[in-house]
Specification:
Layout: E1 3-9, H1 13-27, E2 32-36, H2 39-51, E3 54-61, H3 70-80, E4 85-90, H4 95-105, E5 109-112, H5 117-131
Parallel strand pairs: 1-2, 1-3, 3-4, 4-5
Helix pairs in contact: 3-4
Length: about 130
Amino acid sequence: MSKAAILCVDDEVLVLESLGIQLQKAFADTYAYEFAESAAEALEIIEEIQDNEIEIIVIVSDWLMPGIRGDEFLINIHQKFPKIIKILLTGQADEAAIERVTKEAQLHACLQKPWKSEELIETINSGIEQYD
């Protein structure tokens, strides 16, 4: 694969925009950045960019989204792509969902909304260290 990517999934456009700004500021052009407003859209993006030889190394996902919730989405991702680092970013996930995704999808971290930019970047960095 030629380039690594970070995928952010959240049904709130403002959250995605904020994540994009923070990632660009922290990592500049080191990674490609992809954004999806639903789990279904995220799955389409994953398939599409793999065809372009881009490897997703980190997914930052909201929990409460229309359609598939973040825990189910990350478990599905883990079954297909176990190496991807999975981070849940939520203000509403219940403990059972967090426990389930930790156990079944090797969740790297769960960050609460509103998040601190430094904490998000440190979490992504620690995940990438594990990935390599």
